[in-house]
Amino acid sequence: MAAAQRIVIENCSIATVDADDTEYATGYVVVAGNRIESLGAGSAPEGLENVVRRVDGTGHLATPGLVNTHHHFYQWITRGLATDHNLFNWLVALYPTWARIDEQMVYAAAQGSLAMMARGGVTTAMDHHYVFPKGSGDLSGAIIRAAREAGVRFTLARGSMDRSEKDGGLPPDFAVETLEGALAATEATVDEHHDASFGAMTQIAVAPCSPFSVSTELLTQGAELARRKGVRLHTHGSETVEEEQFCKELFGMGPTDYFESTGWLGEDVWMAHCVHMNDSDIAAFARTRTGVAHCPSSNARLAAGIARVPDMLAAGVPVGLGVDGTASNESGELHTELRNALLVNRLGAHREAALNARQALRLGTFGGAQVLGRAAEIGSLEPGKLADLVLWRLDTLAHASIADPVTALVFGAAAPVTLSLVNGLPVVENSRLLHVDEDAVARSTRAEAQRLARITARA
Ligand SMILES: [Zn+2]
């Protein structure tokens, strides 16, 4: 086999986000094939062979690529609707539109969501997809195809809903699958697409949508399916006070106790939101190593509340960041969530001590890798790990007068991405996507959004 080709990045600041938060004011990173080979202060070692590219990182900060842990790609074509609603009212307003999506729409929406993620420094994306209308085509296949084309590492959380209005749930009857249908389709998606190997580009998780749209049987049997297949489990949890009331009325307990009773706490589980958690809920997550996808912008958009991230971190709960679907976070950018996680949590009980810039960067990188079960592969810049990294430009008007690069990245405006590598391969160069025609995707997503609106209006 030919020796691995090397990319050498020099003269940049580096925040490794390793266990000691090691940083270099000026340093280098050597990438060999799809792995980080070496990094450190000063110049790269001399005499390296097979160097195909040298990058001058002057004025830049190198960090691990950002990891998004919660999203709903299809919502890219239903942005800007029901803008003054809380979660339940917003869902009821949008279900009739969402129930009419098809493969062509979902593919375009996935392209749009992925493009926005990648150009903002995301190297590992995820999609929690839970709307599968009858006859809508191969939605999972279309989403995975879009991720492969964009060049990012990807987890598809195969979602499902089977508790509709007639069973006391929130979605309309026509928007849900049957219990048997959802389980069979989820298992087929795992069998067809899940790659368990080190460095996998595509992984699948089992992901019933939420306590108020899913039967107890689907949660229980979904957990059994995931553990039989050795894949991770994902769902929404403890998002709003209304959800908490729903669980108490229907199940006689709060969401966390309900999840525990259905097998949904564990180190192979991560849950979106977790806003309404008391001390014993947080202790249960810490004891079981259940992960959290913190989505501060979406929680603010839907007036859900402030998740207790500082308390979760102090207790030892793994926490990553998520944009959530773009119908509740129209920007669809993860790098702004670093800033919003810090700002929103400072509005909570811990005030200015809630989070600092380095903790926010850790949430968006290593924390995300932890909750996706990939901390040994990605999330920090260390020799032997996969070469998923971002070179942020910090020497322009937006950031040049901020001395500390991590402060500039987290507190400042969204920084331009000069280079991002996924698995050692460039995905973004000078703020432009290399594998996706951004303007073409802008046109197709607008056309699909209009087509969906027309179909919904006719129904
Ligand atoms: Zn969500």
TrEMBL record:
The keyword Heme does not apply. InterPro entries: Amidohydro-rel, Metal-dep_hydrolase_composite, Metal_Hydrolase, MTA/SAH_deaminase. Keywords: Hydrolase. The keyword Hydrolase applies. One of its GO terms (molecular function) is 8-oxoguanine deaminase activity. Coiled coil: none annotated. Residues 62-402 form the Amidohydrolase-related domain. Gene3D superfamilies: Metal-dependent hydrolases (3.20.20.140), Urease, subunit C, domain 1 (2.30.40.10). It is an enzyme of class 3 (hydrolase). Its EC number is 3.5.4.32. NCBIfam families: PRK08203.1. PANTHER family: AMIDOHYDROLASE-RELATED DOMAIN-CONTAINING PROTEIN, AMINOHYDROLASE SSNA-RELATED. This is 8-oxoguanine deaminase. It comes from Streptomyces kaempferi. The lineage of its organism: Bacteria, Bacillati, Actinomycetota, Actinomycetes, Kitasatosporales.
